[in-house]
Amino acid sequence: MTSRNNKKDTRERAIDRRVSLTEYEDNDIDIEETAKNTEYQKGSTPTAKYGVLFQKMRHAIPESYACSIGCGGEKCKYCNAPASGKFSEEHMQIKGLFSSWITDKIIAISRPSTTLVERYDIIGQFEQKNIKSIINLQLPGEHPACGLNKLEVEGFSYKPEDFMKKKIFFYNFGWRDYGVGTTSGVLDTVKVMQYSISEGAVAVHCHAGSGRTGVLIACYFIYANRMTAEEAIHLVRSKRPGSIQTVYQVKFIQEFQQYIRPFKIVYSLQNDCDGNEAPPFNLSQYIVRQRYLLHGQQFRTFKYLPKIVYIICERLLTLNKEMDRDYNPAMRQADKRDRFVKDGKRWKGKKTEKLDKYYSKHQDSSSIGSENNDNDDEAAQESISLQVIEALELDDYDGYVHKRVEELKQKLNAEINIWKTLGKEENAVVLAKLLWDWIEELHDPVLRAQDFQKMLLLYDHPYEGLASLDSCSTATVVYLFRFLSALGPLNESDTLNLIEKFLSCLTQRNIVNCDSTMSSTSTDFRPRATNFSISIKDGISERLLKFFKNLLGALSEDDRNHIKTTNKMKKLLFSLPKPGEELESHSLNTTNSYKKNSTKIQSSRQGRGGSNKYNYEEEEDENEDEVEFRSTSRQHKFR
User: Fold this and answer.
1) Looking at residue 149, which CATH number applies to its domain?
2) Residue 125: closest CA among 107, 138, 137
3) Banded pLDDT at 144 (limits 50, 70, 90)
4) Which residues pair with 134 in a beta bridge?
5) Which pLDDT tens digit goes with each residue over 10-69?
6) CB-count burial class (<10 Å; 0-12, 13-18, 19+) for 385
7) Sign of the torsion formed by the C-alpha atoms of 494, 495, 501 and 504
8) From the candidates 71, 206, 273, 472, which is the catalytic residue?
9) What average pLDDT does the segment 380-384 reach?
10) Which of 398, 491, 536, 619 could form a disulfide with 541 if both were Cys (CB 3.0 to 4.6 A apart)?
11) pLDDT number for residue 303
């Protein structure tokens, strides 16, 4: 029993490592608890403390004059919270600052000053509370008359390098006082915020830590936790009253929700988080939208590859490779057979007859005796592989599979942390149907009719034929056929069946092939034939099958150092993850590289209002993807 539990724990850890590449593990919010806190607020429209007239007047008054008159100089209650007497200890979670924990890893604070940092050992408090990053939303030179000391040379009330010396990361995304950023700029900021939360707690501040700070935190909840704008605003205000102060700030949060809503759609023609039907999209559109939400290692891994395809294929490979339970062949045999059973019902379809025959044969062979244990082990390993292969070949699903698939599609469009659920799905048939449905429901096929011409001419040179496709199509095709290769040694019949199935879905056409030397069926192979009204003619389908059979062979013998193709194609091939490959160490190396490289970013103050223009020192051997990721962050090293 202990051995069985240890093996299960090992599998779960492997799943978690693989899924962690696609989703930071801690989104920092207990959704059920949040729902309780905001339940009474649902349906209400958030209001603002300051209206449009105030906003216009505030921006018409010079910054220095407004600060000296409105804030009170040294008596500013936000810049000298302890002396003001306005805040209780409950509202000074960081002693010396007006500060409130919004979640366990996000704290909103008023701006620190050098005097307060030294007097109350704020950096020491940060270290004690595991606050690893500070995000500053002020513009340099802002509120010069406030606080206990003059602005430092960097233009802020404290020295960012004092925090950085203690390995606390510093980011500056400047917005105007009582203002907001741009939707695309805020999206970049919440990506950096999510990365920072994966490292430790994050402190966010503007001047008072209420207006702009509340906007950013609310937008983060919309991005990372799929809250509505109203839910996010109510949550922030429940933890820090008075946050999100102006009409424009409330409106911006609502606009941000609408801005990122299309980026989170995984399955078209399903309801999204707002209950609206998602319009169809093609592969290129999905990849572009996907990139808006990803950063760092995720951005590089899925720059051309759909994340949903990766997650499903990796889970199928995990099911394909694991040796379940202990090494008792009879127990394994029963367990594998039960994988196709739900609530006492067997999955139905043509291919399950083959499974029945195999398990019957395996039952007989397992009773021979201990001298055949090695043969039993090999047979059991084959049965696991057979389960996934048969699931991929099935074209007839029962009611439970349809219901489970539709449920997962809805959740993928509307819920958070669903990637983890999908990464632990135990039913290979459900996973296979999810994969086929996603490919088939694309508005345009991955392989279009115009893509066939060069592929048909170069069917003996598959890498050269793929070079004629766009990067997204190439990456998707290569990964899927690498996945097919990784399933293990397949017999000729299964190989051709799966190639035909893949090709039929990728082209969204029926594959008509009556050549018995190529086809495993000698008849039309039509996965879910009612879906496709167009067929590929016999001669064309035969050459396409040869092309992809040659591609599968080339990928099976893949030596990345000796691939003969264009440099662009090589770069694309090398950037794709190998199915089933351990990615944890690669991800960690990327994180360390990000930390090392980000300290090279300098800032130089230019233009009106002290706005920042960022210059990047790039190493000669640095690739374009690393530069692209680094350009989204604004970590400063002041010199």
Assistant:
1) 3.90.190.10
2) 107
3) confident
4) 170, 203
5) 444 444 444 444 444 444 455 445 444 544 355 567 776 665 666 666 666 666 566 666
6) middle
7) negative
8) 206
9) 46
10) 536
11) 93
Pick the range with the lowest mean pLDDT from 169-178, 335-344, 400-409, 451-460. 335-344
Q: How many domains does the chain have?
A: 1
Q: What's the rounded mean pLDDT across residues 203-212? A: 93
pLDDT of residue 418: 83
In three-state secondary structure terms, 337 is: helix
Confidence of residue 160 (pLDDT cuts 50, 70, 90): very high
Q: What was the pLDDT predicted at 192?
A: 94
In which residue are the tokens 């998602």 written? 278
| Mean pLDDT across 600-628 | 34
Q: Given strand 99-101, what is the order of strands in its sheet?
A: 99-101, 106-109, 201-205, 131-136, 169-172
Is 592 a domain residue? Answer: no
Q: State the Cα–Cα distance between residues 61 and 85, nearest whole angstrom.
A: 28
In the annotation, is 206 catalytic?
A: yes
- 222, 229 contact by CB (below 8 A): yes
Question: What are the tokens at 315?
Answer: 């889970």
Evaluate if residue 513 carries a pLDDT over 70: no
216 neighbors 196 (Cβ within 8 angstroms): no
Domain assignment present for residue 184? The answer is: yes
Asked whether residue 101 is domain-assigned, the answer is: yes
Which residue type is seen at 568?
K
Q: How far apart are CA 175 and CA 182, in angstroms?
A: 9
Dig out the tokens for 479 from the structure.
Answer: 């990964």
Give the domain range for residue 97. Answer: 43-264
3 state DSSP class of 553: helix
Burial of residue 451, with CB atoms counted within 10 A of its CB: 0-12 exposed, 13-18 middle, 19 or more buried: buried
Q: At 109, list the tokens.
A: 């604070």
Q: Which residues pair with 271 in a beta bridge?
A: 277
- The SS3 assignment for 77 reads coil
Query: What does the pLDDT read at residue 528?
Result: 43
Query: Is residue 223 within 8 Å of 187, Cβ to Cβ?
Result: yes
Task: Answer whether residue 479 is part of any domain.
Answer: no
Q: What is the spatial distance between Cα 584 and Cα 330, in angstroms, rounded to a whole number?
A: 34
Nearest to 563 by CA among 498, 484, 477, 466: 466
**Where on the phi/psi map is residue 575: left (φ > 0), alpha (ψ -120 to 50), or beta?**
alpha
pLDDT mean across residues, the chain: 73
78: left (phi over 0), alpha (psi -120 to 50) or beta: alpha
